[in-house]
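Explain this protein:
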Amino acid sequence: MQEEPERERAPGTNEPEAAEEAGWRRLSPRMLLVHPVQELVRALPALLAALVAGVHTGHGDVFSYGVSAVVILLGPLRWLTTSYRLTAARVELRKGIVLRQRTSVPLDRVRTADSSAHALHRALGLARLTIGTGQSERGRGGMLTLDGLDAGEAARLHIDLFPGATGAAETELVRSRPAWLRFAPFNLAGIVVFGMVVLFLPEVDIDPMSSGPVPSVLARLRGPHPWTGVAEAVAGLAAGCLLAGFAVSLFMFTNFRLARTPGNTLRVTYGLVTTRTTTIEERRVSGVKLSEHLVIRLLGGARAAVIATGLHTGGSTSLIVPAAPARDVGGVVARVLRDPAPATAALAGHGRRALFRRITRVVGPWLLVAVAFAVLVGAEVVPLWTWPLPAAALPLCLLLALDRYRGLGHALVDGHLVGRSGSLTRERWMLSGKAVIGFSMRRSFFQRRAGLATLVVSTPAGKRRYEIVDIAPDDAVRLAGRTVPGLLDPYLIQAD
C-alpha cells in the first residue's frame, strides 16, 4: 500500500490531469449527519479541557460553544476533502484537511473486505468498508477505511473486490443456533464492560460503595464471619460479569453466519445492533486456530479463527466461529480446511520432562508467595484468618500444571503441522506445511537443564510465529524435517 502527500501538477497538463481526476467519488452526503456525532466523541478530551478552562476564567459557555462549533465544522470539511475510486488495478483514497494524503492499494494485495454498520449507520442506510491488505492487523497501516458509503455501494464494492463472492449459490458452513447461548455469559469482554459500568456509576450520582448490597457485604467482611462476606462478594462480582458477558455476546454474535461463495471466498456475517460482514480469500488461508478458554472448555465449547496471510489471528476479521459447541466448531474447521483430520487427530505428548517442568514452574512461584504471606501474617499486616488462601492455592496450582502438561502436543497430519499448548486458554493451531517458511529452536536456561526446547515455526500468515513448547530437541528436528523436507539439510551434521 502506498501513501503519500498529493503533489501539484505543472501547467499545461490538462489532459493527464483530467484523466487523473476521472472516477473519483465522494462518500454518501448522508454521512454529514453522522460526522458531527463522531467528531464530538473524538473531541471529548478537548471539550472537557475547554470546559475546565472556561470555568476558571468565568467564560465556560464561550469556551464550550466555541470548541463545539469548531469540532462540528470538521465533519463537513472531512466529507468535502475525502474521495475514493476503484480502477481495474487498484483502489484509492484521498483525504486530509491540512495535510492531503493519497492511499493506493493494488487489487492483488487486497486480503479482506470488512463491512460494518452501527445503529446510526443502519438508520441512514450507510456502511463502513475496511479493506485489509498484506500487512498485519497489529498496525492500522494495512487498512484502508471508507466510512460513510451508501450500503448498496458498499455491497457493490465487495463484489468488485472479490468477483464471484455474491450471495447467490453460497454454501452455508454454519449458522448460530440457540445451543450457543450457554457460552455467551463467559465472554471475557464482560469483565471489562462490568468494570466500566461500575466506574461510570459515580458520574450519575450513584455511589456503588454505599448503595445496594455492597454495604451489607462490607459489614460481613468486618464481622466475626468474614468468609460469608467473601462468598457474597465473589458471587456478586461473578453475576455482574456473567450478565455483562451475555449482553456483549448477544450484541456481537447474534445472526452469526459463515458461508463459502462460488469465488472461493469465506464470508462471515454477524451482529445485532452493529452488523458486520467480512470476506476472506481462501487462497490466503494457511490454516485454522482453535481457542478454548478454561470455562468454555469445561462446558464443551471452543472458538475458531483462520490463519491467513495479512490477518492477525487475534483480530475480529479472522473469526470464523464464536464460542460454540466443540462438535460444531470442529465441523466448521473440517469444512474450511476441506479435511477433518487436522482438527481431530491425536497428538504426540511431550514426556515426563515436560511434566516436571510444568510442575516446577507453578510450585516455585507458590513457595515465594507462601513465604511472603507468612512474613506478612507474622508482622500482623495480613489477618490470620486468611491462611486458607495460600493453602488452597497449592492443589489448584498442581492441577493447573497437570492440565498444562496434558495440553502439550504436536503432530503432522495430512500436510498440516499441528501444535497445542495452554490451560487457561488452550490453543490448537493447524498450519499447512506449504505456508511454513522457516524454523528456529529456542532454549532457555531451564529448558537446557531439562533437555527441552521450543520449536518456533515461521510463516507469513496469522501472527507470523507459532510455537511448539517444551519438545525434545531431536523430536523438533525430525518434525521440522518432515514438515518441509530438505529445509534443514544444510544445517544438519550427518553421523558416521
Observations:
- Residues 303 and 323 are 5 Å apart (CA to CA).
